[in-house]
Amino acid sequence: MHLKYISSTRIFSSRFTKIFLLFCACAFIGSSIGKIVSHNTARQTDASAQSSNWGLSFQEEGKRPVGNATIEELAQYNAFFAEDTEEKKIYLTFDAGFENGNTPAILDALKKHQAPATFFVVGNFISENKDLIKRMETEGHIVGNHTMTHPDMSKISTKESFQKELSDVEKIYREITGKEMTKFYRPPQGIYSTQNLSMARELGYHTFFWSLAYVDWYQDNQPDPQEAIAKLTKRIHPGAIVLLHSTSSTNAQILDELLDKWEEMGYSFHSLNEL
Length: 275
Hints:
Layout: H1 14-36, H2 39-44, E1 52-53, E2 56-57, E3 66-67, H3 71-75, E4 79-80, E5 89-96, H4 103-112, E6 117-121, H5 123-128, H6 130-138, E7 142-145, H7 159-177, E8 184-185, E9 191-192, H8 194-202, E10 206-208, H9 225-234, E11 240-245, H10 249-264, E12 268-269
Parallel strand pairs: 4-10, 5-6, 5-11, 5-12, 6-7, 8-10
Antiparallel strand pairs: 1-9, 2-3
Helix pairs in contact: 4-10, 9-10
């Protein structure tokens, strides 16, 4: 699916919203597939593959899942999906493709718990929500790069085109905050390739996948709050990089309680800067 460039001044369209949600679904399909394959099968599609959807295979409750690539394989590209640790540490991340009113409540919960997070933003989000970007920066969160137009980056073959998807977001962030953007990158749809990872590394970026996520992006079919909490507490594990969507009304509703429960389980919240 081809996604045309959206300028930073253009009002966010419903068409882009639908495309973004479809991309989110595509990304999670990769994760869902990973859950039902064996350990060995999950490992066959690793970082050396030409192109792959990020996927996870959950083996044991409370333990880090198996990813398409190992921590060691990703490390050579300055890429991560979790931390290799037995300490009960959580790294909170949010993908922000557009704003529908739920981000302020999410920021409120993070502030209450003094929990740092990284918001991976698409171009239209950062250009249309300057006050939220400033609040994220002021309250100690990281604003990461989720590309300007949320394309399948594995189909971009030139370094110049790859860089433009990132530098256009950097430019808007610089105009809003007067600061340089932290070079943290999350591939749209979770689709990656060795070439993409290499390009990101050469541009000074660290790439972040995730080790815990759930279906939270369908606006008309939001998860039941208590079912969401049960799922997210069951699969949390030491060193987890958690992916949530800031568009989710369920996430906005449960985040305070969810962070409470994780704290009761002995977990603490850390910044991706530590990785």
